Amino acid sequence: MSSFLHQRPIQNPFSNSYPVSPRSSSTSQRPISIFSPTGLIILLSLMVILGVFVPWSGMPVATFSNSKKASSSLAKWRDYTLAEAASFVAKNGTLIVCAVSQPYFPFLNNWLISITRQKHQEKVLVIAEDYATLYKVNEKWPGHAVLVPPAIDSQTAHKFGSQGFFNFTSRRPQHLLKILELGYNVMYNDVDMVWLRDPFPYLEGNHDVYFTDDMAAWIVVVKRMERMERRLNLVLNLIVAPLPQTLGCYILEILLPLLLYRKVASCYFSLVDQVKALNHSHDLPPPGKKGRTYICSCMIFLRPKDGAKLVMKKWIEELQAQPWSKAKKANDQPAFNWALNKTAGLVDLYLLPQAAFPTGGLYFKNQTWVQQTKGMHVIIHNNYIIGFEKKIKRFQDYGLWLVDDHALDSPLGRL
Fold it and tell me: Ranges for the Nucleotide-diphospho-sugar transferase domain (predicted)?
């Protein structure tokens, strides 16, 4: 720009060599100084023109370019297959898998922090059940999330007992079967779990399917107590109905607590029976009153063997035979137990130690047992409680909610 302002005036070959007015000639040939008022005005004008028009002329191009890149990135993850994801994530032929929709992000991060502390986070593959989860996880942690179509309605999938929740959980055996058919070992976890220690040393031997018992002794007792109280109230009300009101009330106040006390005593022994010995059997437990076991479908380890594939196929069949309805608000766990019970003689099954993998109904309800087994706990499951806020509060009360103070330890960072 300065060279333009200081260039010599072009000489016209046809001009008069002897101008009539020397004064006018010298004025026309004088170069414009950049520091002169005229030069400063020209410079300022150029800066205004460049500052105003150049950004506007370039903005559509930049916006289009960024939009094109974002669109290309989203298309890449939409087309990302389970086979590609498993190949990218698996370490030593093993994957750690969870299935998550957007409302579960806080629990996903909490779970990931606990796994990172055990140095197994690189094996984690998040099966996204909606596109928001797919894009967010891969934005923060490229390649560690995959969506197996179709996507579900994430707003209903987290409501326990809803059809959305059933649709969400019933896809689990399909995902696991596909991973087994690809030839990988796979550990499945619900994300309302926290790892306190490395679980892999507990996967002894070369069994087909490893699982945990979900029978919560305390919950069994509470449910029995509630049923007993209802029945006793009904019976006693029938007995005292013909009696005078004062006498009837007196009998209810005295007899009901006494009868319940006897039942509490019997339930206490039932409670003791439900807590397994530290050296308990690793066989499939005997069926309960409903004719099936009460194994948890939320913590499973599978080897890519025919037995594990058979259980997954049977699980899928049982889910199809027991669809969700308003009358019978099914979930995936009873179907998993029927699958285990019906294939037990054909599959090599292994029950993991209760002290290492306690259900929430035991860990959060029986502090005597927790103290007796201190230092043995490996994965804690925050189940037997419904509602995100209640689960978070319980984790916080027990020092297991890691997101608030350790979010940066997660591969996803602070969400």
Answer: 120-215, 269-395
